[in-house]
Amino acid sequence: MAKEKILLAYSGGLDTSVIIPWLLENYDCEIIAVAGDCGIGIEPAALEAKALKSGASKCYVLDITRELIVNYIYPMLKAGAVYEGKYLLGTSIARPAIAAALVKIAKQENCTAICHGATGKGNDQVRFELSIKALAPDMKIIAPWRIWDIRSRDEELEYAIARGIPVPVTKEENYSRDQNIWHLSHEGMDLESPANIPQYEKLLHLSVTPEQAPDEPTYVTIDFEAGIPVSVDGITDPVKMLEHLNAIGGANAIGIRDMVENRLVGMKSRGVYETPGGAILYAAHAELEALCLERDTMHYKEQVALRFAELVYYGQWFHPLREALSAFVDATQQTVSGTVKLKLYKGNIITISRTSPYSLYDEALSTFAEDDVYDQSDATGFINLFGLPIKVYAKTQARNRKNEDNE
User: What's the CATH code of the domain at 61?
Assistant: First the structure.
């Protein structure tokens, strides 16, 4: 009987380093390792050598950074999607992009299964598997964390040490981290108690603390076309734009979020996120929308953004509802073009200016000075009609109370 051919979503981190020998010990299989480089600068030769030494027969390292930014992050940015008011969905948005790459190679290699290293407590298992189901509905999925005997990261580390597998963590520095060009997340260890103060000096990798940020502000200018950033301080390449924003944002302590969130699987979890460039783009995009979107459209879009964020967080990127909401969002973004200038200072993003050829701001209407375009007496009739329902309700309530008092 032919060996099973299993594709492993591989990063070279603790989980996937352990999974290769575990698969070989528990399945009669050949392992194809696939790493999706989402902008963290994976060294292909080193990662391939590690995968092959661990027991994989082949290793692909795919640079999907530009794909992630253009086809996943930009639609999310245009939607203004933020999960529970804080999380800019850095890990969430990368999973469908990685899954799409996994499915492509799995089909190319005629694999019978795709294996991932997401835990049975986390959201990523859902994100990976829903994406795989959408793109390859008949593909078998293997999730070791849901079936093996390893019950903790410490046990996982001991498993690796016993087999001579090099891993990038120790028992003293065993945070669960996920990084891509959009963000870096930190979970586990002392962060598991919401009462603990994060040890930012050793925790942060992309950013400095506000206390460490320079005393002089940094200015940044961002140009948008139809809701998409097309230039940042004169840089026009999507990858280089985000790298530049990450550099200046991190240097000014921008985008550090400590939050307790509601996981899809039911429990609350605490994590620290670094999203310096993403926080800047979200702030600039929101300022331009405030200038260019009509009121009712803008307010309704804010409701859409909440649902859009849930769909991304829940792993439903390839869901028809997400696609339908993106169509709505794209319609709203046709006039979201212009320039926003921001000041970055010790963790703060301060708006300096925003301009657009599609601006709906009419200075003649908004001025406190004398004007000849707005008749203030018109407000009397408007208020009388707008307030008519509450006036009728108040009079009815008063009449009913009077009748009750007379009984």
Answer: 3.40.50.620
